[in-house]
Amino acid sequence: MSEQPQQPQQPQQPPQPQQPPQPGYGYPNPGTGPYAAGGGQAGPYPGGQAGPYGYPQQPGYPQQPGYPAAGYPGGPVPPGTYTGDPNAPYGYDPYGRPYSDKSKVVAGVLQLTLGGFGVGRFYMGHVGLGLAQLFTCGGLGIWALIDGIMLLVGNDNTDAQGRVLRG
């Protein structure tokens, strides 16, 4: 039998005191933040503490002198809210187009019920199309029916001023 060489024994390390668990990577320290017990801090990374990727949290870009702040003074405005803009009395849609004072539901129902007389088109301010529908009896009803359906399901119908009809 062969004898294997013995390895020198390592001295045993004294046991380390138990440490509390550390937060995960990118998380603020527990006990800080706006909902912490004892008042908390104003933000998740107070006093220049490192942010989620190890960089100090920046307050944002400073306001350039001579330029007004972007957007409305109170922040973003929900669609359909009166903004005080005379070109868009009912606000702007999500694409930035102004809303009309006319409703697409009213225009569509008028076109479906009285489309032979072009009433839906007269309501929207499209007098030329309204007269054409009036003189052709709404294209014998077919034009009026299709036009009414298109008014109800379309999202880009406009009034005579080019403003998008409200939903």
TrEMBL record:
Q: What is this protein called?
A: TM2 domain-containing protein
Q: Which UniProt keywords apply?
A: Glycoprotein, Membrane, Signal, Transmembrane, Transmembrane helix
- Topology versus the membrane: Multi-pass membrane protein
The highest taxon in the source lineage is Bacteria
What segment(s) does the record annotate as region Disordered? 1-93
Annotated TM spans: 105-124, 130-153
Gly residues compositional bias: what residue ranges?
Answer: 36-51
Composition bias, Low complexity: 1-10, 24-35, 52-71
What InterPro entries does UniProt report for this protein, alphabetically?
Answer: TM2, TM2D1-3-like
UniProt subcellular location = Membrane
